[in-house]
Amino acid sequence: MSENLRNFTKALYGFDAVVQRVRPDQWDADTPCEGWCARDLVAHECGVIGAVAQMAETGEIAMPTMPHVGDDPVGHWDATRDRVLEALDTQGALHTHGNFWWGEMSIDQLVAFATWDPLAHSWDLAEATGQEAHADEGVAEAALATIAPMSETLRKMRLTAEPVDVPDDADAMTRFLGLTGRNPR
User: Which DSSP symbol is given to 90?
Assistant: First the structure.
């Protein structure tokens, strides 16, 4: 297993831990992501992670599409999580090269980039549902290293908000949240 896949998997399971603890009456709770409730956030994550799975399966670019998760956001998430893990566990998948989201790269490089999404949204979903998001510091450091050089591009694409000031000596997750426009309080 590559370090990128290890970090991506940890981020997926961090998001999964929050999803599994959402009470049925919390799916319409507002999240820190403007205009999204908890159900919408899980649909978004299913779209992003489903696109990663499709690229790993086919070697061709796939764009995220938000499925309608209806009354079963957990079931949709479970199926998406399992699909991507299976696709990435296929012999040679990580070494597949293609013209993916940010140009020519391997699936291994793609998952390094994609790690930031479940990492950020696990915090968002936890905030929306009154949970604690447990983030791995190593994963947060890796996500910071990957997205910091492209943070202005991510903001221009409206994938992140304006950075929030955090102390320079803050832990990696706090710095990651601040970079992506989240106020870790």
Answer: S
9, 60, 92, 172, 176 from 135: Cα distances, Å: 12, 31, 29, 9, 11
- pLDDT band of residue 176 (cuts 50, 70, 90) is very high
Whether pTM > 0.85 for this model: the answer is: yes
The position carrying tokens 């991510």 is 154
Question: What is the distance between the alpha carbons of residues 63 and 84, in angstroms, rounded to a whole number?
Answer: 15
H runs (alpha helix) in 115-182? 116-129, 137-147, 151-156, 172-179
pLDDT in tens, 20-53: 999 999 999 999 999 999 999 999 999 999 999 9
Secondary-structure class of domain 3-179 per CATH: mainly alpha
Contact 90, 56 (CB under 8 A): yes
At 19, list the tokens. 């999803």
